């Protein structure tokens, strides 16, 4: 006797790469799979707070080799929300509502057991297969979009920061994550805690999406303004050129990941901080330190008007025969990273692949679009010192609120 089997996604899944629900019934020669339905629900918050209605209802009555497949990533991807304002949080904080989502599929199928009369049965009726998703993507060679299990949700690299930078670090709050320690290059160290002095992380056992992915405010300004952190760990007690390690540990005190922050001074140029949704579908940050130039791309509409003239009148030359209207500009900034490590190629790739990027201007995040095209990922063996130049165009006209 044979019955269909299913393949369903598991946490944590990236929704900008393919996500499949698949049914199969071909163990015996005359097995068939004649029909399969999929009711897809996508929501944020508690796992138990399941919406009453499906976001999407799909069905297929044609199989290939008795396999029916649904690829649902684009349906999930449209449901995400992001908020870069978590950058200045102190201590541990929840991820923004809508950045991480529960996804669950239910449905039924109709099949034949080796030529017997067709049978209709439910293949899933509850949230037992619900899984977490973010709007990330899986790079090659991971063509199957395997589930993410790592605690650190960013590409590994040394982070060059101003002492005034606020910056939060995204973490997958699974059972491995227990605590964070701060270790300065002079040997001073201590536990990373919340503003009230507690080391409590958001409780992942609540199965709230906002507790499954969390942020730690570990940028220099976050540490400086966190009243729970002992003073000798504050950046003001250290000098430009010093660095500190954010050491992520499990409950057995084993090191999971280490992220280094180096205090960097830029006396000549105006640094810009960029926020972007990285390959893991969460907020990430980078500071461009070196020469930046601003430019405006001006556009307009125009028309030629008729001007009356006769033998008794003199035409004023102050009002032209050719007139422009609907004049606007879309401004851009060309930024340079300054000297960085070789693994910054992955960061640049994340920015170029990101669908949501913003620059911090006067304390507010403003959406920008990086100029895409060919990027050479630099290697020190070829170029000696590595730096990247990127053009960011503001996603708004300089004169807003027009058609």
List descriptors.
6-stranded mixed sheet, 7% helix, 5 helices, single chain
Structure description:
- This protein has 403 residues and is mostly beta strands.
- Helix content is 7%, strand content 39%.
- It has five helices and 24 strands.
- It has helices at residues 73-77, 209-212, 220-225, 344-353, 380-383, and strands at residues 5-7, 13-14, 20-24, 32-43, 56-60, 67-71, 91-94, 101-112, 119-124, 131-134, 159-161, 168-172, 179-184, 189-191, 213-217, 243-249, 255-263, 272-277, 283-288, 290-304, 322-336, 357-361, 364-370, 389-394.
- The strands form five sheets. It has a seven-stranded antiparallel β-sheet, with helices on one face. Strands 2, 4, 5, 8, 9 and 10 form a six-stranded mixed β-sheet that branches. Strands 11-17-16-13-14 form a five-stranded mixed β-sheet, with no helix packed on it.
- Strand 13 and strand 14 form a beta hairpin.
- It is globular and about 95 Å long.
């Amino acid at each position: 006797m044979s019955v269909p089997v299913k393949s369903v996604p598991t946490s944590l899944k990236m929704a900008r790469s393919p996500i499949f629900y698949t049914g199969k019934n071909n163990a015996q020669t005359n097995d068939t799979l004649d029909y399969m339905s999929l009711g897809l629900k996508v929501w944020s918050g508690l796992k138990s707070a399941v919406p009453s209605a499906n976001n999407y209802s799909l069905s297929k009555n044609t199989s290939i080799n008795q396999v029916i497949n649904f690829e649902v990533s684009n349906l999930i991807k449209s449901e995400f929300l992001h908020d870069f304002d978590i950058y200045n949080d102190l201590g541990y904080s929840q991820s923004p509502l809508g950045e991480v989502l529960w996804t669950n599929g239910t449905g039924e199928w109709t099949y034949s057991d080796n030529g017997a009369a067709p049978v209709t049965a439910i293949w899933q009726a509850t949230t037992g297969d619900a899984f977490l998703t973010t709007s990330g993507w899986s790079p090659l060679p991971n063509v199957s979009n395997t589930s993410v299990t790592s605690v650190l949700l960013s590409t590994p690299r040394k982070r060059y920061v101003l002492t005034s930078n606020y910056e939060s670090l995204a973490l997958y709050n699974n059972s491995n994550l227990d605590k964070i320690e701060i270790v300065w290059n002079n040997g001073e160290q201590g536990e990373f805690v919340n503003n009230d002095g507690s080391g409590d992380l958001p409780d992942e056992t609540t199965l709230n999406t906002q507790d499954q992915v969390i942020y730690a405010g570990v940028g220099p300004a976050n540490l400086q303004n966190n009243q729970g952190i002992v003073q000798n760990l504050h950046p003001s007690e250290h000098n430009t050129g010093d660095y500190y390690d954010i050491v992520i540990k499990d409950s057995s005190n084993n090191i999971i990941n280490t992220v280094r922050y180096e205090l960097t001074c830029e006396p000549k140029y105006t640094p810009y901080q960029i926020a972007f949704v990285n390959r893991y579908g969460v907020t990430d940050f980078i500071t461009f330190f070196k020469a930046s130039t601003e430019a405006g791309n001006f556009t307009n509409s125009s028309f030629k008007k008729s001007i009356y003239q006769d033998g008794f009148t003199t035409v004023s030359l102050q009002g032209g025969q050719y007139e422009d209207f609907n004049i606007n500009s879309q401004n851009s900034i060309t930024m340079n990273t300054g000297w960085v490590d070789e693994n910054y190629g992955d960061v640049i790739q994340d920015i170029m692949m990101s669908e949501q990027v913003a620059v911090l201007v006067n304390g507010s995040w403003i959406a920008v679009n990086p100029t895409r095209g060919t990027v050479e990922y630099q290697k020190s063996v070829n170029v000696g010192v590595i730096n990247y130049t990127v053009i960011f165009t503001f996603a708004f006209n300089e004169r807003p609120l027009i058609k």
